[in-house]
């Protein structure tokens, strides 16, 4: 430790008082660098063999020589010079508050009494430090005892916790909301729907979806159906449940072209029900026909399936054109829908497609479509399929031939070819 002897200066007439006046003329001082890495600034008044004496604002300080690494004279610009005025830079943060890190959602400001905040914080502290698995739950009865203010505060703290805790908070809020619906909690959660953190958005969507009525869902969950994260979109679609209002038709119909198959399939189920309920089948068919030209093969395939499920035979032309799709999934879906519709006018297109198809799944559905309307033009490609190594395709082709022709030949391509050449 440095040995220091300090003598206080108490008179205005001392040199220290002069240093304290505005507009100093003396703009130099000495800096003593100590061996421990620190330094001391002051006016050097004595440089002795065993010590150095500095004049500080509070008085004189004596520093032992063996504690000093070096001494330097520091000179600064005099305060008596004319000030140089610079433009004041624009504040990047006018409020003076510390902005949250990028990608972190700041908790909303809620006016919660301190006693309730402390109680909720203690409940969450115990939850976090209690051993348990992923299904560990927050004691919602304890949160419920804090009333609406406690629930609102808990909702506002959502971004402050890790992923698993956020999910647990979402479950807890659902349990609380079932006891009493709270607009305050709803508004706090709605503010998190545009959070940059996916898990925060997920917890908000889950809680809102489980507690809102159809009107509330339309107001708050509709934007989440277009979220950049497929998991959030799926949560939003699942949260819709069995919506029945006509106003849902258009936004859900747009989701039928979602790139994620799970989101898309959920949308298809909902929009099909809405179309049936509100007499919108023709409108939906037009949308699906448009989607058959979508760049995503999954969207094209699902659109073909919807056209078959709508049950309108007038859609057969759009389906037969899909039998030429470059991807087997849309071809298979189109063939299955044609099998369901059973349109005789599509027979020639189906027979041509069967003659050139190489994908097993598509072949199976095309044989089913041939059998549905007993297409004689498909006899020749069916005979060729008897030479297939795939036994299931071979069996189906044989059954179709016997059903269409009434003949009982075995699955022998030669016998069927001879008969067909004689009975074309």
Q: Notable features of this structure?
A:
424 residues; SH3 type barrels; six-stranded antiparallel beta sheet; 20 helices; 6 strands
Describe this entry's structure for a reader.
By secondary structure, this protein is α+β, with helices and mostly antiparallel strands. It is built from 20 helices and six strands. The chain has a domain of 72 residues: SH3 type barrels. α2 packs across α4, α12 packs antiparallel against α13 and α16 runs parallel beside α18. The termini are far apart. The protein has a six-stranded antiparallel β-sheet with strand order 1-5-4-3-2-6, with no helix packed on it.
Quick take:
The chain is of the alpha+beta class and 424 residues long. The chain has helices spanning 15-19, 114-128, 140-144, 147-156, 163-179, 183-190, 198-211, 214-220, 230-240, 249-255, 261-278, 281-291, 297-310, 316-321, 328-341, 347-356, 360-373, 379-385, 391-405, 413-422; strands at 4-8, 28-34, 39-47, 51-56, 59-64, 68-75. Helix 16 runs antiparallel to helix 17 (360-373), helix 16 runs parallel beside helix 18 (379-385) and helix 18 runs antiparallel to helix 20.
């Amino acid at each position: 430790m440095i040995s220091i002897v300090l003598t206080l200066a108490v008179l205005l007439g001392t040199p220290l008082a002069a240093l304290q006046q505005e507009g100093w003329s003396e703009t130099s001082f000495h800096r003593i660098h100590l061996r421990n890495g620190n330094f001391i600034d002051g006016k050097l008044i004595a440089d002795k063999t065993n010590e150095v004496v500095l004049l500080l604002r509070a008085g004189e300080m004596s520093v032992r020589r063996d504690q000093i690494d070096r001494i330097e004279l520091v000179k600064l610009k005099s305060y008596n010079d004319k000030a140089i005025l610079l433009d004041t830079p624009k504040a990047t943060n006018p409020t003076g508050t510390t902005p949250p890190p990028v990608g972190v959602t700041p908790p909303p400001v809620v006016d919660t009494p301190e006693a309730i905040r402390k109680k909720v914080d203690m409940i969450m502290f115990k939850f976090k430090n209690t051993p348990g698995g992923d299904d560990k739950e927050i004691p919602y009865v304890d949160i419920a005892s804090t009333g609406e203010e406690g629930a609102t505060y808990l909702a506002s703290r959502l971004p402050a916790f890790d992923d698993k805790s956020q999910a647990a908070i979402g479950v807890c809020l659902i349990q609380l909301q079932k006891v009493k619906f709270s607009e305050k909690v709803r508004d706090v959660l709605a503010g998190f729907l545009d959070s940059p953190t996916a898990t925060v958005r997920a917890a908000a969507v889950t809680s809102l979806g489980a507690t809102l009525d159809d009107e509330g869902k339309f107001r708050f969950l509709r934007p989440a159906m277009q979220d950049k994260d497929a998991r959030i979109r799926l949560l939003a679609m699942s949260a819709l449940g069995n919506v029945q209002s006509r106003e849902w038709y258009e936004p859900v119909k747009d989701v039928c072209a979602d790139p994620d198959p799970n989101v898309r399939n959920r949308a298809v189920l909902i929009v099909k029900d809405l179309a049936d309920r509100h007499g919108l089948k023709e409108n939906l068919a037009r949308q699906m026909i448009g989607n058959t030209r979508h760049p995503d093969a999954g969207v094209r395939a699902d659109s073909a399936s919807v056209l078959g499920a709508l049950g309108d035979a007038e859609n057969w032309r759009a389906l037969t054109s899909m039998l030429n799709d470059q991807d087997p999934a849309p071809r298979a879906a189109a063939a299955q829908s044609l099998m369901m519709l059973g349109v005789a006018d599509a027979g020639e297109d189906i027979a041509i497609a069967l003659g050139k198809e190489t994908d097993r799944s598509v072949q199976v559905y095309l044989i089913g479509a041939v059998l549905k309307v007993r297409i004689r033009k498909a006899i020749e490609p069916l005979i060729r399929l008897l030479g297939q190594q795939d036994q299931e395709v071979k069996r189906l082709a044989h059954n179709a031939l016997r059903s269409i022709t009434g003949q009982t030949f075995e699955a022998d391509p030669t016998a069927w070819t001879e008969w067909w050449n004689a009975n074309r």
